[in-house]
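Box 3.1 A note on notation
Throughout this textbook, protein chains are presented in two layers. The first layer is the amino acid sequence; the second is a C-alpha cell string describing backbone geometry. Keep the layers aligned when reading.
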Amino acid sequence: MVGLPMRKGSSLSALRDDTVSEGALDRFIHNALGVPVELNANYHILRVLGVGGYRDQGLADVIDYGDQHFTCFQFDYEWRRDIVESAVQLYRFIRVKQAYIKRPVAKRFAVKIEHVKFDMVAHSMGGLVARYYIRYGTQELPLDGSLPELNWKGLEISNVW
C-alpha cells in the first residue's frame, strides 16, 4: 500500500511535505514478520555501470576514487511530484553539475571548456522525466491539455542513452 499526501480539492502541485529523496535505491531490505526480505532494486544496474567506469558520487566521501571521479552523478527525484516539476529540477541539477565539472577540468588539464554535455542513463519514471526534459526543456504543460512546443532544449546539455 502506498500513501500519497492528498487533500480533497487540492491539485498535486499544491501538495507539499518535508520528505526528501536520499539518492537512488540500490537495495531494499525489510523485515517482514521476522523474515528478512532483500530486493536488489537498482543494484545490478549500478554494478553494470561500475564495470563501465561509473563512480557513484554518493560514495565519494566514503571511497577514495582518486582522479577517477568528478563527472558521474545521480539525479534522484521525488516520485510523487509531476514529471514537469522533476524535469525543471533536472535542468537545475545539470546546470550546477556543469559548473562543478568545469573547475577540475581547468585545474587538471589547464583547459577552459565552454560546453559540458551529459550522458543520461535512466529507466522507468526517471526515463519519462529525462524524455520530457529532452523534448520540451523546462516548459510547463499548457492549460488546454495539449503538449508544449517540441523544442528539444534538453539536447543542448545532454546526450541520450
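The chain has a mean pLDDT of 77. DSSP finds three helices and four strands in the chain.
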